[in-house]
Amino acid sequence: MGTTKKSATSQSYEKHPYQLSTDELTSHLGVNVEQGLSRQQVSDLRSKCGENKLEGEGGVKWYAVLFKQISNAMILVLILALALSYGVSDYIEGGVITAVVIGNVIIGFVQEFQAEKKMDSLRALSSPTATVLRNGNLESIPSIEVVPGDIIVIKTGDTVPADIRIFESMNLECDEKILTGEAVPVAKSPDADFSGKSELEIGVGDRINMAYSSSTVTKGRGRGICVFTGMHTEIGKIARSMQGKTRKPNRSMSRKKHGKLQPAKGAALRTWDAIGKFLGLTEGTPLQIKLSKLAYTLFGCAILLAIIVFAVHKFDVTSEVAIYAISTGIAIIPESLIAVLTITFVTGMTQMRKRRVLTRKLSALEALGGITNICSDKTGTLTQGLMTVRKAWVPGVGIYTVSNSEDPSNPKQGQISVGPAKSREQMESEKIARQEHFDKQRSAAALKFDLPPKPSEKSTTKTETYDEKFADAETMEYDEMVPELESMLRTAALCNLATVRLNEQEGKWQTTGDPTEIALQVFAYRFDKGKRILEKDDGWTQISEYPFDSTVKRMSVIYRSPENGNIIVFVKGAVERIIDLCDDVGIGSERKQMTDAAKGLIYEQMTMLAEQGLRVLALASKTWPGDFCEGDNIPRDHVECNLTLLGLVGLYDPPRLETKDAVRECTNAGIKVHMLTGDHPGTATAIGKEVGIIPRDFSTLSKDVADSLVKTAAQFDAMTDAEIDAMPELPLVIARCAPHTKTRMIEALHRRKAYAAMTGDGVNDGPSLQAADVGIAMGMAGSDVAKGASDIVLTDDNFASIVNAIEEGRRMFDNIQKFVLHLLTSNVGEVVLLIFGLGFRDNNNLSVFPLSPLQILWINMLTSGPPAFGLGLEKAVYNIMDRPPHDTKRGVFSLQIITDMIVYGLIMGTLTLLTFVIIVYGVGNGDLGHECNQTYSESCDLVFRARAAVFALLTWTILISAWEIKSIRRSMFRLDPHSKSRFPFFHDVYANKFLFYAVAIGAVIVFPCVYIPGFNDKVFKQKPITWEWALSVGGLIVFVMGMETWKLCKRNFGWFAKDEEEPNKGGRGDLSLRQGFFSFARTLSRTTSFAKTSTRGSRNEA
């Protein structure tokens, strides 16, 4: 956003906002900090202030795209041909080439400019987001949409979207080194008073009641009012200096720093960088650079072919010889290659957007198809991320159970029951007793031939699992609050950042925050002990907070009690981390010392809850001796000690209904799925079995394999690299996973030559996302730091969307291979024809063109280009996810593609050459006439007719090859072997309408080119033909037969079959680890995915 008068007026204040109080600022901006801006206010402010972006940020430069088009190798060759044509006074040819050059540049410019703009807009969708309060609701919006007056909520890991005046914070610290150069994070204080200080006295880094755009929140949380956006922010004021690109090493021109020769060395390297950028050899994705190198390699080949032409004519370079040389050079260069690639990328990004995946880096589109392993988080990715507290164990009281609750946000839904806590031994004896009772029933019923059905795994439902179908008579409905439960609920509510409130207008419960904390808050609200009630009504006052840290896996808050003013520390976290910090368990008469025996009982309860697929957290508290002030910088390990354990809560996060199918699809595609989660090993194992990542029964596996499948982070991190490499299988489930563990997992996969994708959402996930071949960030729950380190972003945080992205990546890779093969096949065919055509000598001993230069141009520009675009739009083939990932080292140019290109090109070139020979030497008298390359005369009639037949055959073979190349191995007449149609050819070729019409129209245009007077003989150097059409049609049939025979040989003899064979196709040992196929039991969840829908159906929409 530029600095306009209008926007300057709307973002001006009597004093700088850091000098104003919150009340003064809200009055000036007309905003309520509890409601935020209304939609009308937002609309008005956006029209006044514009978008929240820097001047010159993003945007596609039209002149850069135009230069890119002109620097195309094909255009350079054409310009050379153009100059030569005018130089020899061949104005017709020169005029046509001029029109071709201008037309090609304009068409390429328009297509690529539109494609780049669309790509820019798609990239913008994955830019940092801002959490704002509008109309009383928290919304996540792109940072570009923030306006002055917005109430912005920031937390650890967020990128501050604009300059904001903080009015509420808790342990908030921001990394502002992008502005100040200071590496130490700045602690923020909303109450700091600078009313009497000028802007010169208080520098940017000392304004601790402000948070600045582009800085990163390293700790804590806070809320603030947006005061400046775009170029009015502090970062905007230095935008021009910040937008300069960092130079590569050794590009300095300083003689003092680097020696006397440095200016010459730096200038040479800078010149090379500029040339490389201009030619597309140093900037772009790996595939774009590889194809640019291919184009200029072919340019070199074109020069070599020109030298061969000159050598054949003993370097007697007449105008005809020069034009023939240039024509041969034109024939070898696929002019539309880079343009087709760009449009294919844009189409792929658009399709991914439809399938809830945003692409941040184009290189990810190339990499997705080669993924062999996916390392995924559990919560919200494999599962729905809709936590509900199902069980709560309170020491000395028993187990509270919540049942029949469908909406995880509604604390008034469901029933609560309480029963005694039983040991594993008691549970096992009751299970045996139930089985014996059931057997007696069956024995008695057998006499009446009325056997009760035995419950099977398939028929087991969630209700039976959690509602305790076989619960004993001691379980009763909850009826009264007890002190032990109240203490635990107080910890669950206060050691919590989530909010729960009833929207009375809509009659719905609304929640904000982390799903785990929402579940705990909703559980507390069931007993009327929610955080808002305790703070507003009961008078609990928060003093300080130690936010959740993934390294210690716990969170603490310090509150002042309203009853006696005591300072109470409330802690929640992973059971193993909390128990070791506790001296006691229980309160009041049930308080006991934390002995080894007590720990054993607690671990037993935790394990039994975890084995039911529940995520288990521990809640604890203690009374702080003395006073505790907000500014006290006491280490957390001094605070989080000598605790009293208040209980355990078991949270259920149902697997997404589509996850198991997605895991199974990965197996079919040769991809292994690893679950890396912070949960307890029991919980992780139960969910892993439910979604099919690990088998339900390990007894079918060898002991060493079974032992390797599930590990804790402590076990995995304790192993050396050599020990990890010696494992028969890398772990499929890692529990209690830390950020460092994820990085080690990626390293282990790389040592096994795997190509890995890693999901992440937290600040600490940045290193593992960058270490992975494809980093995948969560769009809903992910931090801006994680998004910044990632390659793609999932807008719905769904594992199935990763599989969608891989499928789309494979489709794109296939299509790139197809259009590269199509373009290079036609080039090889043309070169074969023209090189062997050097042997056709006329009466002056000059080579006669089998094709005229303008025929070659026509074929290259108008015949090959559109079908190549069509191949770039092909849908996924039938077995796209039933074959192994492609080899990322070989990339597009696999041995099969190179061999196919040579075989098809030789067939094409040979048939066109034979057509010319048959017409001139077989049926004709072999007279090649006089100066038939320049103009028509009666002696040239035979040559002109032969050219027309060759032109028709070459055009048709190039077009029909596009249909053939729809599948690299399958017959064109049955692309899908599973099709029930007897002859699906017409259905298959019409499925891609763009390609169909490109081929059909291209084939029909041959006739006017041959028959229009003046155009045929003066431009194309050909004449109308009659019986010669039979040779063209016959040659086309032979060409199709040749391609079909080659494909048949590949299928029957297994040539290049490794690229297509089904993964896991082997002996029994392979089948034992086929993820997703371990059990066909239904998912135990019937919890609805509120506001979230499956992505698997989107494949049909894409």
Automatic annotation (TrEMBL):
Membrane topology annotation: Multi-pass membrane protein
Domain Cation-transporting P-type ATPase N-terminal: from-to ranges: 16-90
Swiss-Prot/TrEMBL GO biological process terms: potassium ion transport
Substrates-to-products reaction catalysed: K(+)(in) + ATP + H2O = K(+)(out) + ADP + phosphate + H(+); Na(+)(in) + ATP + H2O = Na(+)(out) + ADP + phosphate + H(+)
GO cellular component: plasma membrane
The enzyme's E.C. designation: 7.2.2.3
Secretion signal, residue range per the UniProt entry: none
Enzyme class: translocase
Subcellular location: Cell membrane
Segments of skewed composition (Polar residues): 404-416
Protein's name according to its UniProt entry: P-type Na(+) transporter
